[in-house]
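[User] At your convenience, examine this fold.
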Amino acid sequence: MEELLIRVYCEMDDFSKGFEDFWHKHLITDGKSIMSRCAMSLSEVMTIVVLFHLSGQRTFKWYYLNQVCKHWGCYFPKRLSYNRFVEVMQSAIIPLTVYMMSRRVGKCSGISFIDSTSIDVCHNKRISRNKVFDGLAKIGKTTTGWFYGFKLHLTINDEGEILSFCITPGNVDDRDEKTITYLTKELFGKIFGDKGYISQSLFEKLWGNGIQLVTGIKKNMKNRLMDLCDKILLRKRSIIETVNDFLKNICHIEHTRHRSPANFIVNLISGLVAYSFLPKKPSLRIQKELILTA
């Protein structure tokens, strides 16, 4: 774990130096820093919140007080109190997002998968009493039932690497035009989705952008011929569901103990960054050249 700590910190430190220089050069007014005044550096804060999702712990307070303060004290000599750190880590939202999108996303290979997963923020019985996400979270429905919270929309490549992501309220349709446009703006080739993405207008829009949307058909639809390779890859679409499972059960991007929307975003983005550091990700191990030319 200490080797991973050093690796993550070195990458965060290299990134934060360039990011802070860029941040100060493009400020409209002088004197405003990305970090509120504290003894810890931006790279240290980013490292701690990312490693939480790789530590196997479910409670951030226990992780910070026992793992960081006791066992990693030599690596963070100027560590803050727990309450102060919770306040400061909200400043890492923008740097973590920029770091994820600029350095930790994969490359499109021409074979991509798209899906969304629910991010619950409270139990359904407590929806009326939830004040933290009042006006932000919405009631939505998935194949597993109703939920209150947000949706995480993902596109991945055949090696299980995240290509793009988007967070929306829970009631946003998977076929939402703005969401799909953002998720696919850097993609090409074929993208595979479940039956929730069936839409003639969506297919035509993506086709005009050089992307072929491949989905299954519903029971009330006429059967149609499909390329054998497309049919095989469509059966492998469960890879993105495995990625969602990794994010929820290994990187723990979902829990119902948030006390502010800012901490929710920090937890979610840092979980995505942590996933990118996993040594083994779900992969199809296919020969792209044979499939793309078939």
